[in-house]
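Forwarding these from the shared drive since the link keeps breaking.
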Amino acid sequence: MFSLIRKYRLRKLPPKIVGLMPARNEGARIQFAIKALAQHTDAIIYLDDCSSDDTLAHVEHCREECRVKRILTKVAGYGMNPPTATGCFRQAVKLEAHTSS
């Protein structure tokens, strides 16, 4: 993972702030939350944690307007476990996010 960080730091790109938003069954509130996060980030990665409601439809609806660049969906388990966190971090690095150690 740290080799990915070094690779992008060497490119001398301006810092990019990427917000990670995990959620589960937040259909009624997710658009408000994503729009608020979009005011402070250059891109958003959304992680759906096995939602059984219309959360994903709401995210898709505001995807372009709020710069949601990736939508990751889990099919089993709940929460942000280490493999999921690492996957989100790798997606952020691919979007040339600013990383600090």
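-- next protein --
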Amino acid sequence: MSTAFESIRNTRPLKHVVIARLVAGLPLSGISVMHLIAAAPLKPILQAAQIPIPDLNAILAPVLVLLAGLMLLSGAFARIGAAIA
């Protein structure tokens, strides 16, 4: 009997899915890295949009998006990564 965790983790080995993972994962990872290394600062955008706690969100949001992008690229927990993104 499989658990809910195993049913989420199991995916079929389809070769053409790698293209969709690359198209989704590379921009997510790249843009979030740019936000984290301050090449494209996120804090002024959050302040202009009046998002609460911009200091925390300027760090937390790119980290979660980077995690989602890496999950999509690697294929490990890709469905959870897609849900985060």
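The CA atoms of residues 30 and 66 lie 8 Å apart. The mean pLDDT is 84.

- D.
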